[in-house]
Amino acid sequence: MNLPPKVTERAFARLAEINETGDVRPLRVAVAGGGCSGFQYDIRLDRAEADDLVLEGAGQKVVVDPVSLPYLAGATIDFADELIGARFVIENPNASSSCGCGTSFSI
C-alpha cells in the first residue's frame, strides 16, 4: 500500500488564513497531464467529492482525487513564502525530474 500524501502544519495554517476571508473550501491537489515535464500540479480551492481522500488539520481540509493519488503517494504538501512568491509546494518522491518553477514533473 502506498503512503498517502502528508500536509504540513504551515500549509494548513495558510489555508486557514485564506478561508478566513470567505467561503470555506478545501484545497484540491490534483495531477494532470501537461506542463513542460509531462505532468503538472493543479492546486485550487474546490469542493470535496465523495471519492476524494480527505486530509484534515487545523480545521481545514486538503482533498486528493483517486486518479491523482498514486502520483502523490508519499508526497508532502507545504506552503512556501519566498522572495519569488508565496505558494503551495509539493515535495514528491515519485517525481524523477521537475521544472524550475516546481509545478511540472515527470515520473
Automatic annotation (TrEMBL):
Pfam families attached to this UniProt entry: Fe-S_biosyn
Occurrences of domain Core (ranges): 6-102
Superkingdom of the source species: Bacteria
One MF annotation (Gene Ontology) recorded for this entry: 2 iron, 2 sulfur cluster binding
GO biological process per UniProt: iron-sulfur cluster assembly
InterPro entries named among the record's database cross-references: ATAP, ATAP_core_dom, FeS_cluster_insertion_CS, HesB-like_dom_sf
PANTHER family: IRON-SULFUR CLUSTER ASSEMBLY 2 HOMOLOG, MITOCHONDRIAL
Record-linked NCBIfam families: iron-sulfur cluster assembly accessory protein
Protein name: Iron-sulfur cluster assembly accessory protein
